[in-house]
Amino acid sequence: MEHILLEVGLAFVLIALAGILSLRLRFSIVPILILVGMAVGPHAPRIGVIDFRFIVSGPLIDLMGRLGVVFLMFYLGLEFSVGRLVRAGRSILVGGTIYMAVNFTVGIIFPCLLGWPLREILVAAGITTISSSAIVAKVLVDLKRTANPETELILGLMMFQDVFVAIYLSLISGPITLGTASPTKALISTVLALSVIAALLLSGRRLMPLLNRWLNIPSDEVFLLVLLALLMGTAGISEALGVTETLGALLAGLVLAETVHFERIEHLIAPFRDFFGALFFFSFGLRIDPLSLGGGVWIALAAVVLTLAGNFAAGILMGRRACLSYRASTNIGLTITSRGEFSIILADLARSGGLLPVLQPFTALYVLILAVLGPLLTRESRLIYRGLSRLFGWPPGKDAAPYKAERQSL
Amino acid sequence: MASLREIDLPGIGRKFQLNARSGDRLVIIIHDDGKRELYIFNPDSPDEWAAAATLDDEEARQIGAIIGGVIYKPAALEEMEVKLDQLVIDWYKVEATAKGAGKTIGELKIRQRTGTTIIAVIEPDHASHIAPGPDQVIPAHSTVVLAGTRDTIKACKRLILNGSL
Q1: What CATH number is given to the structural domain containing A71?
Q2: Which of A61, A156, A159, A380 has minimal Cβ neighbours within 10 Å of its Cβ?
Q3: Top-ranked range on mean pLDDT: pick from A52-66, A306-320, B82-96
Q4: What would the pLDDT profile of A235-293 be if each residue is shown by its tens digit?
Q5: CB spacing of A151 vs B52 below 8 angstroms
């Protein structure tokens, strides 16, 4: 009995329910989608015609999940702007460098201690270093902290991390997925990525008018079709060349970010990113057997502790350097601990590269813990600060203002 | 003095921070989805806001028009100068930061030094002192009604604001 549409329909129902639940709980949708995906899958029961195993539709959901990565990477490329980062000011460049120096180092040392091979180390370092800018921005809005002095620095750091992750992914995605099997192709993909970025920086200004003219299509419908053709074409060609579709999509985004049409592109692509992205996180969960999580528990817990410590230290250093109070600096250190979409993308990259299977349950647990703990720590930053200020002798925070919004969101 | 700072909040929108002459700090966040948020901070606790309000796009435009004086023009801003030949009568609101606030008319020697006469002092609670004597205090946030020529009134405002000419 093949009811492929019924299965796909069921998947969409589950994804929509996850979305509704995330709204109700005022919570990021990513960990909920992964949990839902984990709850169903090949090990799940079959009830009448309703098949929670997703065996028939498995390949289709997988494919849509892959498209999700393509759209997520394309969007990341679109948002990439070194110019905006430079304009954001010195304190963000300095703060971002401090953050990377502390956390990327920790991220490299930790898997080294576990005795993992080089490619696994690169992936794990990325997984633990990159915060979830989506969760962070949402939590700041929900907790009504957008006007706080430290928020500028936090969001600036997220921008810094986005630029970092775009460059990092374009450098490592080739070696990770192709790796030891074909070192020449891995080298080609890295060189290709570097040359596209270099070409953009050097001759982007001369090439862009041409691209601007080509893309000057009045009809939204045709514009979207051309856009999808560009994106899918690049992703497909990259896959055929063996340089991974992730990289192709990212580079396509980088190029189009420089055109005058970039806001229109962002606007049109966002629904696709949301839709296929949701399928990606769902399919990531589908592939994880809850019983296999045990293998990653201790690694994930150790990584969580290291991330919390590293991020907190970086937050205090960044905040104090930018002349913020200890109170505001504590907020930085706690807010940036959320992990989400990028960690999952990196784990997916590791899977397609055939890296150590333990990376999958490790990342799932790590993201699940920090996607919950991060927003929680952010919300309770006042209590945490009070405890820490006693410990370190920092000036006590003023309790004059009632945190109305925070009470409501409890 | 009043300063307006404008900064991008990537992923959220744009932040405008006004440090008003009155000492209040007002932060306005314009979200990319059109939502506006207003925050007021106490000067002594810059890390935590004291009051907040969330407005949608339409409400924000209405408030903007009200604050901009489009709907109701405050009396103080209407062409208040009544010219009788050389004589000018003018209103002046004393800011909290004015050096002359809290001093008496005699201490400031307003008439001797500027040639302007204060014909009334209206306190913030609307208690008015008409034709005040030299021992009348000019409280912060009060409105003084001045009579003189254009130049002497300018000098008088300067005197109240800076405590000297």
Answers
A1: 1.20.1530.10
A2: A380
A3: A306-320
A4: 998 888 777 788 889 888 888 888 888 889 988 999 999 999 999 999 999 988 888 88
A5: no
- Which of A141, A160, A263, A381 is the best residue to mutate to test the B interface, defined by the most B CB atoms within 10 Å of its own CB? A141
Asked if A73 contacts A289 with a C-beta cutoff of 8 angstroms, the reply is no
Question: In whole angstroms, what is the distance from residue A340 CA to residue A375 CA?
Answer: 12
Nearest CA-CA partner of B46 in A89, A313, A318, A395 = A395
Residue-wise pLDDT for A326-359, tens only, equals: 999 999 999 999 999 999 999 999 998 889 999 9
Place of tokens 């580079």: A251
The CATH number given to B75-162 is 3.30.70.1450
Per-residue pLDDT of B56-76, as tens digits, reads 999 998 898 888 877 776 666
A contact test, residue of B29, B49, B54, B55 with most A CBs within 10 A: B49
* Residue A328 belongs to domain spanning: 61-380
Angle at CA A322, nearest 5°, toward A316 and A325?
Answer: 60
**Distance of alpha carbon B100 from alpha carbon A57, whole angstroms:** 80
Domain ranges for chain B, please list them: 3-67, 75-162
Closest by Cα among A330, A335, A332 to A392 = A330
Q: Is residue A7 part of a domain?
A: no
Distance between CA atoms of residues A79 and A402, nearest Å: 36
Buried b (16+ CB within 10 A) or exposed e, B101-113: bebbbeebebbee
Find, among A407, A350, A399, the residue nearest to A379 by Cα: A407
Domains in chain A: how many in total?
Answer: 1
Contact B12 A137 (CB under 8 A): yes
